[in-house]
User: Which sequence fits this backbone?
């Protein structure tokens, strides 16, 4: 009779974890990000984190799913924060940081993208514009912003999430010419 080694058993458990939860987590990520490729990239990041966790495999299935969903949410939020930081560079400073390797056409396209994004931000209500400015322009933490707004941190976090979602919708509508 063949006995499984500890590594074989762990590998088998990881494979079962992926098989059981990957479709659910992928659907969850697709709801959070704008395209399926980004969702698939995030899915990979989620399961890389899962496979590095020693405790996850010991949890019951329900807690495993909750853990995976939390990691997926955090990965998606991190992705948006990273994208937003890149996208919220003031238009006046874009020429200073432009990559000298870019062609003139690429530079024009980048400038147009910044202008479209700036136009989308201008369409947001003033409080959302201020929230974006404080969070990404001044790199303040949500707790600091909550203090300035006189609101609970959870409220500010939810407002930021809604603001980014609303921005994405406006940007996509503008891209489609609506």
Assistant:
């Amino acid at each position: 009779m063949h006995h499984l080694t500890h590594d074989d058993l762990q590998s088998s458990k990881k494979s079962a974890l992926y098989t059981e939860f990957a479709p659910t987590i992928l659907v969850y990520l697709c709801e959070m990000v704008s395209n399926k490729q980004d969702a698939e990239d995030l899915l990979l990041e989620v399961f890389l984190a899962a496979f590095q966790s020693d405790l996850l495999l010991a949890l019951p299935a329900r807690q495993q799913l909750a853990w995976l969903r939390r990691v997926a949410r955090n990965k998606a939020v991190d992705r948006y924060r990273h994208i937003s930081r890149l996208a919220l560079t003031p238009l006046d400073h874009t020429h200073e940081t432009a990559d000298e390797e870019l062609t003139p056409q690429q530079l024009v396209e980048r400038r147009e993208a910044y202008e479209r994004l700036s136009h989308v931000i201008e369409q947001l209500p003033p409080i959302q514009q201020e929230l974006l400015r404080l969070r990404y322009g001044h790199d303040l933490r949500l707790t600091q912003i909550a203090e300035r707004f006189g609101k609970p941190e959870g409220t500010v976090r939810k407002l930021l999430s809604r603001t980014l979602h609303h921005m994405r919708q406006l940007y996509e509508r503008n891209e489609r010419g609506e």
About this structure: The CA atoms of residues 113 and 148 lie 31 Å apart.
